[in-house]
Each structure stands twice: as C-alpha cells, then as structure tokens.
Amino acid sequence: MLMGSIIYGVKYKLPEYICTFLVAGGVSTFALFKSKAKSIPKPNAPLGYSLCFINLAMDGFTNATQDSISAKFPKTTAWHIMLGMNLWGSIFSFLYLFAWNGGGGVEAVTFCKEHPDAAWEIVIFCLCGAVGQNFIFLTISKFGSLATTTITTTRKFMSILVSSVWSGSPLSAQQWMGVIMVFGGLSVQIYLKWQRMQKRTVKLRKL
C-alpha cells in the first residue's frame, strides 16, 4: 500500500489505511513480543529487522508494479505477469547458481544425481508452487495487490497462531493484543466491503 502510494500515487480511503495498519501492526506485535517459553541465543536483531524491511519494501514495490502494469495494459493477464516474474527469476537464479563463484549450482545438481528421490521431491515442490502461483496472480489481477497482501499476511499469521497454540506455547498479553488487532482490522475490512456491496445493490435496484 505504502509503495503504491509513494511511487505510483495510488490513493486509498482512510479506513483502508487504518485496516491495513491494524493488520500489519498486529502481525508485527505478535512477532516482536514473543512469549518467554523459547528464546534465541544471541539474536542479531538489527540484521534481522533490516532484512525484513528490505523484503517488505521489495515485496511492496513488486505488488504496486503489478497493479500499475494491469492498469496501463488491460489486456495483460495473470499468466503474462506470472510468466514474466518466473522467467526473470529463473534467469537471475541461474546466473547466481552457476555464474557466481560459490553459488552452489553444481553442488545442487550433483546432489540430485546422487539422490534421485530428493530430485523428485524438488520437482513435486516446484509443481505445487506453480499451481499455487496461479491463484496468487489471479487474485492480483482480479482484486489488486492490496487484497492479495491481506490474504497472504492473514494466512501466514494464522499459520503462526495455530502453530503456537498447537505446540502449547503460551501467548503473552502483547501477542493477544496483536491477535485482536489483526482480527479487528480484518473484520472492519469485511464490514466496509459489505457496505459497498449493499450500496451497489441499492443503486442497481433503482436503475
């Protein structure tokens, strides 16, 4: 959302900003204020936060660019964007693995030759990822990157939450506050969308 607003000048309504920040803030609160049951010895917090920030910035730029491409070129389908992303990703990965010193590409190929079962597992993993990407890019093309980001963030958050509860790890008070923020933001988003749908229905009936 921020990258789209800053770089491409996309404008959102105030409730959308509030809901997005509630979800993002809730996820951040849940991740930062961990329970005391488990602790990482000597964590490199600055490096971790820096990598997370870079990841979020690049992800936001990618999503905003995909929205911009879809808006400028209406004939662009989800599979066009998917092809472009995977093509360039494959090129960069190939160059890093085999052209960069110490990339590990040769070692990976040797490992797969020595362990064909692992190679098949990798192929199946890639096929599953390709199938999943269809849904992601279709969601982006139909509903935009903001909805897609909300869905993926919620899915990740639910995975962490269920994992914590399933493993018996107690949640701190701050983490429960993060849970409330996430579900509060999502609930408001759903309510606002329901309101818009009701208004559209009323307008159509009047016509």
Automatic annotation (TrEMBL):
Is Transmembrane among the key words of this record? Answer: yes
Q: How does it sit in the membrane?
A: Multi-pass membrane protein
Chief subcellular location equals endoplasmic reticulum
GO MF, one term, reads:
antiporter activity
Keywords carried by this UniProt record: Antiport, Endoplasmic reticulum, Membrane, Transmembrane, Transmembrane helix, Transport
Where does the protein end up?
A: Endoplasmic reticulum membrane
Keyword Oxidoreductase belongs to the record = no
Quote the protein name from its UniProt record.
Answer: UDP-galactose transporter
Annotated source species:
Ceratopteris richardii
